[in-house]
Fold this protein.
Amino acid sequence: MAGPPDIFGQDILLDENRLPVVAANGELVFCDGLAAAVQDIKLRVFTYLHGLFYDHDFGSLIPDWIHEENTKTSRLGLVAEVRRRLELDPRVLAGTVTAKILAWDETGLKIEAAWQFWDTPEPQNLTITLDRPGGRRVIEDVALQDGFPLSRE
């Protein structure tokens, strides 16, 4: 008898520069389960909206917020953008996405996002950092503390 379907899927494992990880024998390394789902969320956050020719709804406008002033309206808009983009993943449990701004000043901004996937007991957390002067953009998995560059190519 087959078990329940894997809702998380499988994907090519990407390194911190979004390049495929290759094993010593030259074969691609894959990730699956929760790691694949978290990687998909990271990709959605750092891929610029309409950046994929085959899926115009994938991505986000989060990088655009680095150019906005820190006003109440901008803060509400940025939080709404983060929440909206994470809620688009069908594996995310409805109503579990939260986002809050940790810092926003002349050097950049930092946002924390949290959500829960279907069939998982623990929530997932990411910290998104956008630095203004150097343009450095990083997404950190709060649980694993690994960096994932954010770019808008």
Remarks:
- Confidence is low (pLDDT under 50) at residues 144-153.
- Residues 10-149 form a domain with the Nuclear Transport Factor 2; Chain: A, fold (CATH 3.10.450.40).
- The radius of gyration is 16 Å.
- Helices lie at 34-46, 72-87.
